[in-house]
Amino acid sequence: MVEPFVPLRPGEIGMYNCGPTVYDWQHIGNLYAYIVADVARRTFEYFGYRVTQVMNITDVGHIVDDADAGEDKMELAAKREQKDPLELAAMYTRQFIIDRHKLNILDPHVIAKATDHIAQMIELIRRLIEKGNAYVASDGVYFDVTTFPGYGTRLNAENPADREAGARVEVNENKRHPADFALWRAAKPGDLQQWESPWGRGNPGWHIECSAMSMQYLGETFDLHSGGEDHLFPHHECEIAQSEAATGKQFARYWLHVRFLRVEGQGMHKSIGNTYLLSQLEEWGYDPLAFRLLALGVGYRKPLDFTRAGMDAAQNRLVKWRRTIAEACVATGGRMTEPEPDFGVRAGFVNALADDFNTPRAVAAAEMALDLAGSPDLAVRERALWLLFDMDRVLGLSLRDRASAADDLSVDEERLFDERERARESGDYAKSDQIRADLLTKYGIQLKDTKEGTRWERVRPKGA
After folding, report:
1. What is the Cα–Cα distance from 285 to 243, expressed in whole angstroms?
2. pLDDT in tens, 271-321
3. Which of 278-282, 371-375, 380-384, 459-463 has the lowest mean pLDDT?
4. Hey, which of 11, 276, 300, 304 has its CA 20 to 30 A from 31?
5. Is there a single domain that holds both residue 60 and residue 199?
6. Is residue 165 predicted with pLDDT exceeding 50?
């Protein structure tokens, strides 16, 4: 159900984004969720809100299958790679940030690593024990779900009592109730990551991390919490229970859950080899921003189906947008004119964003502005350019940057470009056509001869 958004504090928004567990490379399904969160932040800022965005990095505490018992994902990866867990986490985090930048995802105001906030987690666990919501067992500290009425149903319609005991977590005789979840786990022999605590050496549970870090930077109640649909249960339900039990206050006022990305109609699974990385898309010749445009074409409440045909269409669409805008910039001399606030295209874009971040409708409004950018009327083109660059504050497709990228040619590309111009001037059209083909196949540069001169568009990233 969609409900009106009312911020906790007028003009300000605090949003927390569940970040990655950095035990491996982040695939395009992971990255898709961060594009959605980025659009939400950009939309709030577009509407004039002052946003504080916090994202965590889970570098300890996430047990395989979201369970309470078993091996930590970071430990498994460290053993697999024969590296220190924090060294491994730093490597995967660096690539994650690089991929985010390629997709024009804004950096959060705070990136909080779990291992830097152990003290805050211990303090929150202490509060829960003192209030009677948590208890110490021989293998750690657990949250007693019977002390929090409605546990597991705040975001899910399914009654926890109907869930099969042990379906997601191993049955543990140290628990008072099968659904109780770990806040702190006692260290086991050979654990690579462990800290001192009032309950002995150990490491934190996954769920307590996000509660401690979000409240550290956003307060005990904040506006928006986002994550993938896989976070609904148990992760987000556990966050709600432990946070509200500790503070007596509402935790997050609104929740945004992104549906899964699918590949050719199937779920992403390593076992079938379809967990693609952004670097693989680049190897296939796609611009990362074509993937962003593909993502914008689907509302976050619906699964995004990734196909090569869909990426081809997104790439061609992006090339068309860039070419049309570049031509409009040349025709107008780069002049732009802000249209009136009730200008139909502009109103459609604003209304789409205000309607639950409806990016497909927002993109459709941008397409209307793009049509205007091709108008023979220069005044219309000036308004269209202003609109497109204004819309791009949310779409994040670098439309202005690419429109002025005439100096983006490498030395070799410039040489071929100039050589073709000389061939055309001398009437050697066979050589001109061959160079055109070489620029496209070797460098991913598409040429278009117009009465204003030859225009070019990079349809494949450099080096791809």
Report:
1. 46
2. 788 899 999 999 998 899 999 999 999 999 999 999 999 999 999 999 889
3. 459-463
4. 11
5. yes
6. no
| E strand map for 229-375 | 252-258, 261-263, 266-267, 304-306
Please check whether residues 29 and 167 belong to one and the same domain: yes
Q: Classify 457 as helix, strand or coil.
A: strand
Query: How many Cβ atoms from other residues are within 10 Å of residue 366's Cβ?
Result: 26
pLDDT at 110 over 60: yes
d(CA 397, CA 6): 29
CB 410 within 8 A of CB 462: yes
Q: Is the pLDDT of residue 407 over 80?
A: no
Structure-token pair, residue 248 = 């007596």
d(CA 16, CA 2): 20
What's the confidence (pLDDT) of residue 170?
A: 59
Hey, what's the torsion of the CAs at 39, 40, 42, 48, to 10 degrees? 160
Q: Which of 204, 246, 243 is nearest to 222 (CA)?
A: 243
Give the structural domain span for 387.
263-403
Lookup: tokens for 299 = 């509302």
Structure tokens at 431: 């050589």
Asked if residue 463 is part of any domain, the answer here is no
203 and 113 within one domain:
yes
| Cβ–Cβ under 8 Å, residues 241 and 148 | yes
Tokens of 80: 């697999």
Pairing assessment for the beta strands 453-458 and 445-450 based on DSSP bridges: antiparallel
Residue the block writes with tokens 């927390």: 16
pLDDT at 406: 43
Whether 235 and 287 map to the same domain: the answer is: no
The answer to whether the CB of 369 falls within 8 A of the CB of 292 is: no
Residue-level pLDDT at 413: 80
What is the identity of the amino acid at 420? R
SS3 for 9? strand
Domain count, the chain: 3
